Amino acid sequence: MDQFDAIRPFSDAEVPHVMARLFADETFLDILARFRFPKLAGSLGWLLKPLIAHRLRREFAGIRSVDALQNKIEPYVDRTIERATDGITYSGLDQLQRGEAYLFLANHRDIVMDPAFVNYAVYQAGMRTPRIAIGDNLLQRPFVSDLMRLNKSFIVHRSLSARREKLAAYQLLSAYINHSILNDGESVWIAQAEGRAKDGDDRTDSAILKMIHMSRKDAPFSEAVASLKPTPVSISYEYDPCDQAKARELYVRATTGSYTKAPGEDDASIALGITGYKGRVHLGFGAPMREVPDDPKLLAAELDRQILSNYRLFPVHYLAYALWEERDATLPVPTVDSLFGREEIQKAQAEWERRLAACPGVQRPYLVLQYAMPVRNHYRVKAGLDL
Asked: Residue 29, by phi and psi: left (phi above 0), alpha (psi -120 to 50) or beta?
């Protein structure tokens, strides 16, 4: 048994068997039926599900590897992006080399689409897609676990409570990340902190960096992490499909001190994140770091500097910043009309007002916060100020 079997993505040899299991999963077929035929799925689900399963088996017949599967689903990703965005732009991809493996450390706003957009970017650049770190809290249903592990995801055990179990899990995770990059030559994507930055405040958790070093304590932190070629990635959405839900959660946390997710809430966030309107999307790849400080906190600060510097701000961010009661009057932030054209601002203003109107008044400050915070962070970094 491979030491990484409990967390690793599926291998090429496992692909046909896992797909067969997936196409026989009643819950998976029911979700597809409801997504594709929302008006008929309730009364005719018994008929639709076998038809969907038959079509899937026919369409994916002959797929025998993860690469072949990703090539097969790439047109579907194209269509999803076309429907849910106003286009994607990239910067910094020219700093990456084909055949090299990197540790992509990215800000985190969307459960599925963050790594999906990074995958899409490197795929379009002719590079191998990275393996993706995903929390086990999102893999409660067997079919979700199958889907994610087919798409090169590996499992981060976050639901463990015992200290010894947690330590062993992080040691294994660290070993897998290092093995993937140094032995298998496969890049890895991991979020800069656990969970999405629901308030728009993107910060690298130095504990993530310490975890990466755990399995290589025989080497200095700087040397071990530098060998993985850590590469900061900024993912910028013009609009967040889940912004209303995030505003509600932030409000509940602020007023009650805690927040308990409803059953199926993560599933709903995943679905809305994939299909919801995002406007324009930009991915900014920083330079792979060849030299790394020996202090994890200093590395976290440098990653933050690059991620926030490369963050693409859209008109809606400046409109939100102008409404934000906690904005810094001394910070040199340009006005929206000095950066964008009249037509672009009018379009953004209409969409922003629609989102504000849809948000209950008591939750509105938390909607504003999500879009305003990136402006503050970007310009504080630009001015050389501490975050």
From this structure: alpha
Domain 65-312, CATH class in plain words: alpha beta
Residues 310, 234 contacting (CB under 8 angstroms): yes
Amino acid at position 253, single letter: R
**Residue 275 burial by CB count (10 A; 0-12/13-18/19+): exposed, middle or buried?**
middle
Print pLDDT tens along the chain (387 aa).
489 999 999 999 999 999 999 999 998 898 888 877 878 778 887 889 999 999 999 999 999 999 999 999 999 888 988 999 999 999 999 999 999 999 999 999 998 899 999 999 999 999 999 999 999 988 888 888 999 999 999 999 988 889 999 999 999 999 999 999 999 999 999 999 999 999 999 999 999 999 999 999 999 999 999 999 999 999 999 999 999 999 999 999 999 999 999 988 888 888 899 889 999 999 999 999 999 999 999 999 999 999 999 999 999 999 999 999 999 999 999 999 999 999 999 999 999 999 999 999 999 999 999 999 999 999 999 999 988
User: Residue 144: how many CB atoms within 10 A of its CB?
Assistant: 20
* Residue type for position 292: V
Matching residue, tokens 């008591």: 362
Q: 160: Cβ–Cβ under 8 A, 6 or more apart, which residues? A: 166, 169
pTM: 0.94
Alpha carbon distance 257, 326 (integer Å): 21
The full set of domain ranges for the chain reads 65-312, 313-387
Of 337, 364, 374, the C-alpha closest to 244 is 364
Distance in angstroms (rounded) separating the CA atoms of residues 243 and 153: 25
C-beta of residue 202 within 8 angstroms of C-beta of residue 117: no
